[in-house]
Oxidoreductase
Amino acid sequence: MTGWTAADIPDQVGRVAVVTGANSGLGYVTARELARKGARVVLACRSVERGGRAAERVAAEVPGARVEPARLDLADLASVREFADRLPYDRLDLLLNNAGLMAVPYGTTADGFETQFGVNHLGHFALTGLLLPRLLTTPGARIVTVSSFLHALANIDIRDLGSERGYRRWIAYARSKSANLLFTHELARRVGRHGGEVVATAAHPGYAATNLQTAGPRAEGRRGAERMMEAANRVFAQPAEAGALPSLYAATAPGVRPDSFFGPSFAMWRGAPAPSWRAPWTLDDEVARRLWTESVRLTGVSYDALKE
């Protein structure tokens, strides 16, 4: 995979992809490059207006692109169910669980979950489960969940998934990103146990310049912190085009194995996609099973096709 770029994405004609958070940043680049290779891409965005503008941008950059916006609010399980019900395709080749929040002030989702855990993990857990029947019947389907190298800051606390014992924004973010990897680990195990061919894998962008870093400070009116993040993005971060490559590799490259994890090749920070280090706790079978059980309970999405 040395030097792998978006130009190396295999032909995607005839394939259907859903990309969450596709109106900006990594999600936008991911959707655009899949469309460039011929995929029909659903831009799953909280705002249909922003999704529509993103679809227009893709169409301008990639003449003939087949992209369409659809409303998906991962902070509202009713919206997640509505999105799955309205998705008009019987087949689904690629699901890219890309959307996320980082280090935002404490809050709760429409269903009462701590916001970062609710959006970054539970929303995508529910979405994947609701779309799984289509993925299981589509040859060569893949599920890519975007984590972060910052998952290494904290394992989940199965007794306090909602951070009710004390909220620290970066620890809550890290726990949600560890949850992404534990989810991928357990999903890959269950699919394999049931003889399914869907590849569940994960990726992270390293340090990529997007609006993710500034959203938290902006929400709290911390203008100094926002400016500091903007400056760090300019000096240290790689562009979103590079940050999206690990996700695109995980989604399309030949030979990707279940439960693999890809990120930038240089110190997990920047560079071409490569297999990435992950914290040992993200491969803990028992914790992954317990998180799965709690996620089913909290979301009401039961993954009937993978029940044990």
Remarks:
- The chain has ten helices and eight strands.
- The CA atoms of residues 291 and 297 lie 10 Å apart.
- Confidence is low (pLDDT under 50) at residues 213-219, 222-236.
- Residues 12-300 form a domain with the Rossmann fold fold (CATH 3.40.50.720).
